[in-house]
Amino acid sequence: MIDILISDPTLRDGNHAVSHQLSAKQVAIYCEAANKAKVPIVEVGHGNGLGASSLQVGIALESDKVLLETARKNLSNSKLGIHVIPGFATIKRDLQLAIDIGVDVIRVASHCSEADITQRHISYAREKGKEVYGVLMMSHMVSATLLVEEAKKMELYGAEGIIIMDSAGAYLPNSVTEKISALTSSLNIPVGFHAHNNLGLAIANSITALEAGATILDGTARGFGAGAGNAQLEVLVAVLNKLGYNTNIDFYKILDASEIAELEIMQNIPVIKSESIVSGLAGVFSGFSKQVKRLAKEFNVDQRDIYFALGEKKVVAGQEDIIIEVVMEILKKDKHE
Amino acid sequence: MKKLRVAILGSGNIGTDLMIKIQRSEFLDCVLFIGRNLSSPGMAKAINMGINVSDESIRAIEKNPNCCDLVFDCTSAKNAIHHWEILEKLGKIVVDLTPAKLGGLCIPAVNLEESVKQKNVNMVTCGGQASIPIAFAIGKTHKNIEYIEVVSSIASKSAGPATRLNLDEYIDTTEYGVKIFSKAKTTKAILNLNPATPCIDMQTTIFAKVDKANLEELKMEIDLIVEKIKSYVPGYQLLVPPIYENGRIVVMVKAIGLGDYLPKYAGNLDIINCAAITVAEEYAKNRNHG
């Protein structure tokens, strides 16, 4: 039986779904439930990770300190994980603090072609004796060859595993196979996949990743995450059990945890909205959805036009300000017509 | 007029672009271009252009201290600290293009005259050069600024290895600069690298949370300062004039480069290099007058 390492970013990716307004109380409640289910890693924080609370991507209700301290108190079986993007989070201001609070797992992320910005953060976290992974976001945007090159850099810096993210929910299963196979055949460390559900393929793509050799998967309660949401964790566990993979997660307890999450932390259960489909097709970062929606309404512009324009500009995670520029451009164009 | 003799320390993207730009200066003479590896692309360019080069790093100046009056440090924040220890003893003026923050921060459109009173002047960061003048204008027209945030996106191809390793210092120094020049209570800086092809132009967004937005006066101040920046960075432009949206002021600017070493998208090189040359020329003019 193959062991699959599950990381649960309900309290991190899910924070996108509520514009980063998860409260300490909600974090405590879900951590307790996930801990009971023995979820291996529970990832907590602002949607864009450590140090990301900002006007650009959204001001969080709680500080990193409060979020992580609360999670720490409520996790004993599960490890506490964080998502760290250099360019947002600095070592001195953010990472040191998180390590002092006692995080166990540090996932250092960059846009899929920019792995070299992760060198210092990965090295630092390794020096501190933490479990460290490299994360390549928006991985649909580059070829398998380039992805392997970037993943190898992270491996060299000290990453103990590489997770590629389908941050836009843009993957079709054949590209999952191509990219995960390329990675597993070139790296000496485990490979993982983080799905989004814009095209309804989150679970299918996750399983495809395993078949291509991945051994790490991300999933969230009810799929709670940015845009159309992630792979739904309780479904994922059920399917993995049925396929004969081993996750060490207590099935009934993860079902319970998802009920609790639905009741206590979600304003809405993620569904694939019309604009999520467009976003997935355009290959736009899922975390943009709340701001696109708000600006479309504010300036009376069609969300679909915004997504396609953003896709054409090939914007990356963290470039939320470009949404404003795109809206201004659409308005200007409308005026001329 | 006697030109000021300058040396460039660091043969990466910044140093090489600077070298090319200095060839056009009436006030500066690039006497030495210094790196660590004669076969690097920057070195090759310098040799090709007939500039004196050295691969001995700071040793080149230690061995021949009279070779220059002013040194542009285009290495990394970490190396700049070590270089300044040596260059200060040698009595050199240093224009520091790393985010080491050893000298006072200089934004030519704001504090050129005061800056050249120092022996070490820091050029903040590319994002700082783009955003701080706008933050300064916000500070001039608004009291009690709660928060300013500046976000820059640059083309991946324009960010060399030192820039990438210095991301934390970039953030730290930019935040510090925005705070000092705007007097905002708290500040935040974010940097995105975008690998899209064709390459994106350097673009910076400034967000501010203020008590009461005064967009009209701000617009006037911004127009004035943008003109001032344009006098030394021709490709600097206001992309989205101040709007008030979702409880915050938003301004967007963009910097298109002159396309000297890297193509025009690398406005991040131009904005800091043009600023650095403006400062060095000011030293040269002062010396000629003095």
From TrEMBL, chain A:
EC nos: 4.1.3.39
A biological process term (GO) from this entry: L-leucine biosynthetic process
Record site feature (Transition state stabilizer), residues: R12
Catalytic residues in the record: H16 (proton acceptor)
Single annotated GO MF: 2-isopropylmalate synthase activity
UniProt keyword list: Aromatic hydrocarbons catabolism, Lyase, Manganese, Metal-binding
EC top class, as a word: lyase
Reactions catalysed, as given in the entry: (S)-4-hydroxy-2-oxopentanoate = acetaldehyde + pyruvate
Binding site for substrate: R12, D13, S167, H194
Binding positions (Mn(2+)): D13, H194, H196
InterPro entries in the cross-refs: 2-IPM_HCS-like (IPR050073), 4OH_2_O-val_aldolase (IPR017629), Aldolase_TIM (IPR013785), DmpG_comm (IPR012425), DRE_TIM_HOA (IPR035685), PYR_CT (IPR000891)
The Pyruvate carboxyltransferase domain, residue ranges: 4-255
Family per record: Belongs to the 4-hydroxy-2-oxovalerate aldolase family.
Name this polypeptide is given: 4-hydroxy-2-oxovalerate aldolase
UniProtKB/TrEMBL annotation, chain B:
Enzyme Commission no: 1.2.1.10
Positions annotated to bind NAD(+): S11, G12, N13, I14, S158, A159, G160, P161, A162, T163, R164, L165, N166, N268
Active-site residues, Swiss-Prot/TrEMBL: C126
Tree of life domain: Bacteria
An annotated Gene Ontology molecular function: acetaldehyde dehydrogenase (acetylating) activity
Keywords: Aromatic hydrocarbons catabolism, NAD, Oxidoreductase
Top EC category: oxidoreductase
Semialdehyde dehydrogenase NAD-binding domain sequence ranges: 5-118
InterPro entries for the chain: Acetaldehyde_dehydrogenase (IPR003361), Acetylaldehyde_DH_C (IPR015426), NAD(P)-bd_dom_sf (IPR036291), Semialdehyde_DH_NAD-bd (IPR000534)
Protein family (similarity comment): Belongs to the acetaldehyde dehydrogenase family.
Protein name according to UniProt: Acetaldehyde dehydrogenase
Organism: Aquirufa rosea
